[in-house]
Amino acid sequence: MTLDSGDKVKALAVNTDGKGSRTSLSIRPERCIVSQKKSAGLSALKGRIEELIYLGDHIRCRMTVAGNNEFIVKVPNTADQLGLEIGAESYVSWQTDDCRALDHRGS
């Protein structure tokens, strides 16, 4: 799929009008990984960390990804996530099967 930003990603078509039609993509926040490098074998887009909210067992990470400044990632609160910083450029990655293409909603 080609995003409005021009980036290309793969998604599992769940409920779409067919090839070439507009669609909305959905990825569960806990299915994403934030890292400094692209993760091999995963779909990935570059983004910018806008907000970090500590919620005990996880950190809610709001990012700007492909022009969407409300991209939310649920990051486990572990020692290997210490590099998360507001304003940092990072990759957000996911398994292709975790990204769903759905009927487009809105404009």
What do these coordinates show?
- The chain is mostly beta strands.
- It has a domain of 69 residues: OB fold (Dihydrolipoamide Acetyltransferase, E2P).
- The chain is built from no helices and 8 strands.
- The chain has a 5-stranded antiparallel β-sheet with strand order 3-7-4-5-6, with no helix packed on it.
- The protein is elongated.
- The mean pLDDT is 87.
CATH architecture level-2 label of the domain at 27-95: Beta Barrel
* Integer average pLDDT: 87
How many beta strands in the DSSP annotation?
A: 8
Arrangement of strands in the largest sheet: 3-7-4-5-6
CATH class of the domain at 27-95: Mainly Beta
CATH topology of the domain at 27-95: OB fold (Dihydrolipoamide Acetyltransferase, E2P)
Low-confidence stretches: none
Helix/strand structural class: mainly beta
Radius of gyration (Å): 14 Å
**Tally of helical segments:** 0
Major sheet: size, sense and barrel closure? 5 strands, antiparallel
Shape: elongated
Brief overview:
With 107 residues, the chain is an all-beta fold.
